[in-house]
User: What shape does this take?
Amino acid sequence: MAARKKTPARKKSPSKKRSSSAAQRDALALLRADHQEVQSLFDKFEKTRSDDRKAAIAEQICNELTVHAQIEEEIFYPAAREAIREKDLLDEATVEHQSAKDLIAQIESGKPGDELFEAKVKVLGEYIRHHVKEEQNELFAQVRKTKLDLKALGERLMARKQELMAGGGSEGARGGAEGGEEGIMSKMARGMGLASGT
Ligand SMILES: [Fe+2]
Ligand SMILES: [Fe+2]
Assistant: This one.
């Protein structure tokens, strides 16, 4: 009797709207979206005049990149290393992450107004652009040809990302002229009991 034909609005293929269904993205799409997001932050940084805005954007850049690098290193790179032949790609990517982290640490402990601060953000942006290009054009291209379960990997990446973001991003870290800025990631790491050395 109950004509149950009308299925309630159930969006099966969110092809148009790819907003918050991030959990369903495969690993490559998720990482790619991170890349785009951080790229747009670098663009914003460049266009902004206000020091306050610059500080906030730089902080967000550092925060996002650190989380991104961490999920790649913990989850994506090891999985890729198992799956692809060209391990060099992963070695190089890991070294690039280290250099990026070094710059990130310098940016986190600096502030706008210092000429070098802007230079560092700019160089980090160029560096990341290069790194992303290699990841997307070489690493991702190879990974896509393997039998890796990219959906499952995407879920793990997303779960870890959310965990890291929830770990301490709420403090608004660099409050301005407070001195003794600690860097949001160290705070996050401490918050999670990760005290990750250096
Ligand atoms: Fe990377
Ligand atoms: Fe990446």
Observations:
- The pocket of fe (ii) ion (ligand 2) is lined by residues 31, 35, 68, 72, 132, 135 (CB under 6 Å).
- Residues 1-20, 169-198 have pLDDT under 50 and may be disordered.
